[in-house]
Design brief:
The complex is a heterotrimer of chains A (122), B (260) and C (281). Chain A has five helices and two strands; from the N terminus they run αααββαα. By secondary structure, chain A is mainly alpha-helical. In chain A, helix 2 packs across helix 3. Chain A is elongated and about 55 Å long. Chain A starts with 10 loop residues before the first helix and ends with a helix. Chain B has two domains: 188 residues, no CATH class; 47 residues. In chain B, helix 1 packs antiparallel against helix 2. By secondary structure, chain C is α/β, with parallel strands linked by helices. The chains are: A mainly alpha (122), B mainly alpha (260), C alpha/beta (281). At the B-C interface, helix 1, helix 3 and helix 4 of B face helix 1, strand 6 and helix 3 of C.
Chain lengths: 122, 260, 281
């Protein structure tokens, strides 16, 4: 039987997300240097090409930028950028799966909403 | 073609074998010296030491082949380069040990009866075979040394060198041959060849050919030894033999595979 | 660095251990060589490194034939289960000898790595335990400076800690010195994160030779009630199936059609699962 716990997202996306999380928590402050692809590859035991893909994704989104000869740096305003991106993706990433699951379980819209309210501590 | 790595590795191993070998030789020489100077009745005589050197060369050609082949081939050394490295290492070793034998003879024949096979040949089988006539303590305590001609020394060295090299290459050939053979064939050859030589052949000779085989073998042997006295012929015949043996070894080596 | 294997066959006593294999591997790349026991992975690696001679076909590195070619052979370093180092040779002596054979061998790096892995360089190589014997070969491989590394089951016999350390060192080494690495292993999931390309060998023949992204995108799983799953699988290329009571999972080749029917779960196939299903018959 398939492993129900198997990761489904491509590794480079997971890497990008972990790096973004690190920016959000302040582990990689804005304007600070990101670890090199070598360091990322070694730390996560992944292929450097995959690490590079993940970092390139961050560059594409403007979360990081490259300084020739020195390395990759966290952009100024990266935190708000990431938050904005995740807000936009919140619907696709969390709401849709939640409502699909709710429908699967036969929960009514009311029941789902009340659960959300519980989540907010009401 | 850089054969240095093979060279250096081989020498390291040969050195071990030759150290043991020469410690035995020098042990024997020391014993002889002790006998000579402590007992007046016995004179430790050493004859034909170079035969054991020849056997030793055969052994180094044979013994190390398998491990060297596996190591070198596994490390990306072509079989051609390996062969050249082995041949060169064996040649240089043969030159070194044969030289050492001659030096031993030259030095120790002053003290004890140390003769080489070649020297007894060249003196027609009757001479003392000594390179230096023994020194004698003259009345005034002086000693005198008479040197044999350098050409004789060199001829002897060449004789030994070629014998050693041929045998070393023969050892290599046997080594490669055994490596290439599968287990059943190995057993067949290990038992069959000695049996054929020492049992079948004499039987055959005694009953069928009436001694002709051994007669011709003996004649060939004598002929070869007589050739040895002529350096030109000696060089040619032994080089030809070595080339043939080397060729055989190469043909077997080029298709050798590293087994699991 | 391009390694080209052209129509290579190797037979032993009439059986083809490697059967008409043609591959073109462009470096730098980490390529996984996957196959079941006896599929021909070791033989193929031995053919590339020159330990074995092909019955047919030829192998080229950067356009030059590899056979009996010292210039090409010194660019290749291979390690496998069998230990070819001479008996009685100490680890430090092994490094010295390798340093003479491989022009770019990095002795300092070898010493550093030995410390990291706790490999005793004064120990004789044949007296090392299985794990440390493997570590010696790995250290040698990483320090060799060779353009092409052939690693045949490099983590065989290593505990999880050593494996983890090895993957870390391998990735760092590869990032700093990109080269062509051909890596065969049975621990597919561990390798899946490292490799860029996968070649699957079955019965001496190449079954698949794809980039890892293509491979993972070319198959999927469908789970649900047996009837619904079978109905969905109708007409598609089925790789295999698993059942647990009335719950059936079917493994299919291709990409799932959109929209995906309700009542069925779509899943991605892991590399290991894909490999198992492809090589099960």
């Amino acid at each position: 039987m398939p492993n129900p716990f198997a990761e489904e997202k491509p590794i480079f996306l997971q890497i990008a997300e972990r790096l973004e999380d690190a920016v959000l928590t302040g582990a990689f402050p804005e304007e600070s240097r990101l670890p090199s692809t070598t360091e990322i590859a070694a730390a996560y035991r992944i292929n450097p090409a995959t690490a590079l893909k993940g970092v390139s994704l961050l560059v594409e989104e403007g979360v990081a930028y490259k300084q020739r000869g020195i390395g990759m740096f966290v952009s100024k305003g990266a935190r708000s950028l990431i938050e904005e991106k995740r807000r936009r993706a919140f619907f696709e990433d969390f709401v849709l799966p939640m409502t699909a699951e709710a429908k699967k379980l036969g929960l009514s819209e009311q029941e789902t909403v009340s659960m959300i309210e519980r989540g907010y501590g009401k | 073609m850089n054969v240095k790595p093979i060279f250096r590795y081989q020498f390291r191993e040969y050195y071990k074998v030759f150290s043991v070998f020469y410690s035995v030789i020098y042990g024997m020489i020391v014993l002889s010296l002790i006998f000579k100077y402590t007992r007046s009745d016995t004179d430790g005589s050493i004859f034909g030491m170079e035969f054991s050197t020849v056997v030793c060369c055969f052994i180094i050609g044979l013994a190390m082949f398998k491990s060297t082949f596996r190591f070198c081939t596994a490390c990306g050394i072509s079989r051609r380069r390996l062969f050249l490295g082995l041949t060169a290492a064996l040649a240089v070793s043969a030159a070194a040990v044969s030289l050492l034998d001659i030096v031993n003879a030259a030095v120790f024949s002053n003290f004890i009866d140390y003769r080489t096979f070649y020297s007894s040949l060249s003196s027609g089988g009757s001479g003392s075979g000594r390179f230096f006539t023994s020194f004698s303590l003259g009345p005034a305590g002086k000693f005198s040394l008479h040197l044999m001609p350098l050409s004789l020394l060199l001829k002897n060295w060449l004789w030994c060198l070629l014998a050693d090299f041929c045998c070393a290459m023969l050892g290599l050939l046997v080594g490669v041959l055994y490596y290439r053979m599968s287990k059943p064939v190995k057993i067949l050859v290990s038992v069959g060849v000695p049996a054929a030589c020492f049992i079948l052949l004499p039987l055959l000779d005694a009953n069928v050919t009436h001694g002709k085989i051994f007669q011709s073998l003996a004649a060939a042997g004598v002929q070869w030894i007589q050739w040895g006295l002529n350096p030109g012929l000696d060089l040619l015949s032994r080089l030809a033999a070595a080339a043939l043996i080397a060729g055989g070894a190469w043909l077997l080596l080029r298709k050798a595979e590293v087994s699991q | 660095m391009t390694l080209e294997i052209r129509n290579v066959t190797k037979s032993f006593r009439g059986k083809h251990a490697v059967d008409r294999v043609s591959l073109r591997l462009e470096g730098p790349c980490i390529c996984g060589l996957l196959g079941r026991n006896g599929a021909g992975k070791t033989t193929l690696m031995n053919l590339i490194s020159g330990k074995t001679i092909p019955t047919e076909g030829e192998i080229f590195l950067d356009g030059e034939p590899v056979r009996e070619n010292d210039r090409a052979l010194e660019k290749i370093f291979s390690m496998g289960e069998v230990n070819y180092f001479p008996l009685g040779m100490k680890v430090c002596e092994v490094f010295t000898n390798l340093g003479r054979i491989y022009p770019n061998f990095d002795r300092d790096y070898a010493e550093q790595l030995s410390k990291k892995f706790e490999l005793d360089t004064l120990q004789k190589n044949d007296k090392l335990s299985t794990g440390y014997a493997t570590i010696l070969k790995l250290v040698a491989a990483l320090s060799s400076g060779a353009e092409v590394l052939l690693l045949d089951e490099p983590v065989l016999g290593l505990d999880a800690n050593c494996r983890d350390l090895f993957y870390r060192e391998l990735m760092e080494n590869y990032a700093e010195h990109p080269r062509l690495i051909l890596f065969s292993t049975h621990l597919i999931e561990e390798a899946a994160k490292l490799i860029e390309r996968a070649v699957i060998i079955r019965a001496g023949q190449v079954l698949l030779d794809e980039s890892i992204d293509t491979l993972l995108g070319c198959a999927y799983s469908v789970s649900g009630p047996a009837g619904a799953a079978d109905a969905y699988a109708e007409g598609k290329e089925i790789l295999g199936a698993d059942s647990l009571g009335g719950l059936k999972t079917v493994y299919l080749r291709g990409t799932p059609e959109k929209p995906f029917p309700a009542g069925l779960e779509l899943g991605q196939m892991s590399l290991q699962k894909l490999f198992i299903e492809l090589t099960n018959h």
